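Project outcomes to date are best conveyed with an example. Our students and postdoctoral researchers have been running inverse folding experiments weekly, and each run begins with a structure described purely in tokens. The record below, which covers 350 residues, was selected by the lab manager from last quarter's runs and is presented without edits.
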């Protein structure tokens, strides 16, 4: 789960408070709000505005859009009168029907296919059959730790036969999605939050709104600068040492930062942790890293790439990052060693 990136405001906490700043002769103040309603995680919004009413208007727009994306992208809940990914995954008489969906779903699925190709299949939203098996065993293990078990490899291998992303058929003109394998389901956990945050941030930018940070479960996107014209300070959580809570502080203005980690969503079997980031090749939780952080222009890219890099060797992951423009990363290996891409240091706040 990408919950390991926290936004730091240099004056005080992220609670409602303010230091008067001047922009074009008008006093602006820092405000913040929180929500627990979207994407099964915590959302925080921090921004500078000329008053509470102005901030509430922008924050309300952000939360309303998050609600829209949450309803469209969830695979767990139906909503009356709405076709979403949950209904795309459903079977009718043993087959998936062709579902006419909102254009935002089509665009996100097309983006996910691009990331599948870019990462050599390490990000595969057609892995739902495999991930649902892991979800079932993880939830059971968390409810009754003394009975925690690993999914049988035979069960995972059988599920993996139904993960061909090319069997997700998209008709862009008709805005329809059809899963042609009746045993295949979609799971967009590696892209949904980051994609939604990015689309909302771009909408703010198009409206000329600046001076905000949106953080949805660790998918952080900065929109412009702080109210005093300075960049935002964002910290990357230390996966090992709670006393030294942060590995690095980055200076961002218009960039995103996303971290995938093995140390938050997991369960324990026979004394060993098994986290939620499943390697499509081994069908097991990827080993080798405690966390991978990506800083880039797009929260969508950060979300997808942090997952993909977590499932790659350091050599392959570094090669991918170095060939992509405006993408930097930091890896923390299982023994705590840190590696960074060539331009990562440009963001670090010394």
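After processing, the design step wrote out the following sequence:
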């Amino acid at each position: 789960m990408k919950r390991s990136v926290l936004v730091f405001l240099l004056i005080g906490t992220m609670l409602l408070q303010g230091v008067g700043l001047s922009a074009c002769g008008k006093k602006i103040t820092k405000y913040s709000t929180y929500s627990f309603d979207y994407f099964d995680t915590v959302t925080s919004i921090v921004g500078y505005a000329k008053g509470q009413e102005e901030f509430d208007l922008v924050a309300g727009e952000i939360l309303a859009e998050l609600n829209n994306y949450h309803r469209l992208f969830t695979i767990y809940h139906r909503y009356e009168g709405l076709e979403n990914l949950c209904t795309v995954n459903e079977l009718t008489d043993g087959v998936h029907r062709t579902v006419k969906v909102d254009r935002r779903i089509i665009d996100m699925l097309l983006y996910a296919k691009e990331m599948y190709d870019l990462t050599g299949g390490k990000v595969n939203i057609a892995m739902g059959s495999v991930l649902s098996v892991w979800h079932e065993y993880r939830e059971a293990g968390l409810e009754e730790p003394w009975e925690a078990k690993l999914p049988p490899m035979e069960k995972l291998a059988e599920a993996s036969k139904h993960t061909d992303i090319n069997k997700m058929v998209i008709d862009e003109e008709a805005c329809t999605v059809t899963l042609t394998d009746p045993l295949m389901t979609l799971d967009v956990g590696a892209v949904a939050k980051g994609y939604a945050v990015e689309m909302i941030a771009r909408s703010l930018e198009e409206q000329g709104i600046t001076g905000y940070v949106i953080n949805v479960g660790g998918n952080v996107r900065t929109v412009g600068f702080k109210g005093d014209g300075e960049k935002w300070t964002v910290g990357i959580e230390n996966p090992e040492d709670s006393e030294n809570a942060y590995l690095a502080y980055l200076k961002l203005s218009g960039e995103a930062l996303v971290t995938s980690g093995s140390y938050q969503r997991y369960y324990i079997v026979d004394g060993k942790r098994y986290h939620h980031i499943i390697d499509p090749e081994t069908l097991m939780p990827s080993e080798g890293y405690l966390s991978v952080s990506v800083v880039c222009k797009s929260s969508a890219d950060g979300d997808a790439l942090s997952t993909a890099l977590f499932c790659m060797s350091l050599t392959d992951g570094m090669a991918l990052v170095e060939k992509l423009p405006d993408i930097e990363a930091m890896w923390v290996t299982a023994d705590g060693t840190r590696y960074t891409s060539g331009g990562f240091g440009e963001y670090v706040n010394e």
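The first strand starts at residue 5 and ends at 8. Residues 3-24 have pLDDT under 50 and may be disordered. The training component of this project remains on track.
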